[in-house]
Amino acid sequence: MIPIIDCQREGRSSDIYVGLGLSALGPVARAALVDANYFLIGRMQDEKSLRETQNTLVLPPGAAAILPGLPPGDFLFRGPRWPDATLARIYANVLPPLRQDIQYDTLPYTASRSLREMPHVLRALQKAKEAHKAARLIPGQAGHARVSDTARRFLSSACDMIGLPAAYIFAAMGNVSSYTQAAVRKELETEELVVFGKLRIERTNHLLLEVTADGYRAAGKPPRPLGGKGSPPHCVPMRWIQEVGTQRGYQHSIIEFKVPGTMQAADNAWFNESFRDLHLIEFVHTCYTNLPDKIRAAFASKLPIEQFSIIAGQKSLLKKIDLFLRSELGMVPYSNRISFEVVTPYFEAFLKGRLR
What Å distances lie between residue 268 and 12, 114, 227, 254, 319, CA to CA? Predict the structure, then answer.
């Protein structure tokens, strides 16, 4: 599965959607599923695939039992804007069967070629992509004219107030009604200038955000990416944790720390020179099925790990993660070296450092 994982990462870095069709989920490496943004899962019957679907989509207990009975066209769907799996249906025209008198090896086909062998196609793609983005940002056209003054003010503030929830940015702008806030969010999402996502921290929902590359261009400011993978409810807390590591005096506070000699990366790492006082951190928003692989890789490496922390927004989620890890084979030797924390103190320390 390594070539597929590399293809997913290359597509993400080049803004190209990569689709992966599978007949079963059971044999698939979890790293490939963790990097996926959209899931469309149809009828499956084998026990291993049902269990993997249950863990990947974070379904309620026993919910995967509906998969063997799904009719053609019905699927379980989950995406960045649908954090919970939902039942979906695809309507498609049924094509007539192929003529049986045509031999398969007589059908015409075009041999596949790498884009590197066609530089003129690469240049055309890049030119079209740049023209598309430029057209969205020219004043008087889509992407600029349809954005209100309030939305522009919010966008400009969001470029400077990296990591702060939307409520704090609106508060800094003055008295903005809840109706106007919802309209601003819809405008910026429609024009793909800002990506929003909700994170529940204990009993409070926070609307987190990340300004896109188009958003920085529209605001006329240099891009300042959050770092990390995934949607704002995952990337923004990683930014909080990174800044708290700096506040606590660590010489290095890193997002997406690659564990040497493995394919795994920790969400955050704090350490001093020569990896002294190494503290690896994983933040969990919804999916935690990849944690055993990350934990095994970290402790199997030669790194002098002082602490391994798992952080989430709610205690109830941490309890689920703890039970899940205890049920996984090979996790017992590491149980006393793993700590569980709610993200609240990290969020408060980040706010204190930003708003003082």
Answer: 20, 36, 11, 6, 21
Cα separation, 334 vs 295, in Å, equals: 8
What separation in angstroms does the CA of 49 have from each of 40, 68, 77? 14, 11, 16
Put simply, whether the predicted model's pTM sits higher than 0.90 gets the answer: no
Q: Which residues pair with 41 in a beta bridge?
A: 76
CATH number given to 234-355: 3.40.1350
pLDDT in tens, 40-86: 888 888 888 888 888 787 788 888 888 888 888 888 888 776 667 88
Instruction: Mark 199-208 as b/e (b = at least 16 C-beta within 10 Å).
Output: bebeeeebbb
Distance CA 19, CA 36 (A): 9
Q: H-helix or E-strand containing 182? A: helix 178-190
**pLDDT-based confidence at residue 140 (cuts at 50, 70, 90):** very low
Q: Which residues pair with 77 in a beta bridge?
A: 40, 86
DSSP strands (E only) in 157-213: 194-201, 204-211
Q: Which of 340, 86, 76, 81 is nearest to 233 (CA)?
A: 81
Pairwise CA distance, residues 239 & 245, whole Å: 10
**Sheet of 265-271: strands edge to edge?**
252-258, 265-271, 278-284, 305-312, 338-342
- Give the confidence band of 266 by pLDDT, cuts at 50, 70, 90: very high
Stretch (H or E) spanning 255: strand 252-258
- Asked if 142 and 136 count as a contact pair (C-beta separation under 8 A), the reply is yes
The confidence score (pLDDT) of residue 128 equals: 81
Residue that is written with structure tokens 């939305």 in the block: 151
Which CATH number does 148-217 carry? 1.10.10.10
Domain with CATH 3.40.1350 in the chain: 234-355
Q: Is the pLDDT of residue 170 over 80?
A: yes
Which amino acid makes up residue 222?
P
Q: Give me the count of residues in the chain.
A: 356
Sign of CA dihedral 277, 283, 288, 289: negative
Question: CATH 1.10.10.10 spans which residues of the chain?
Answer: 148-217
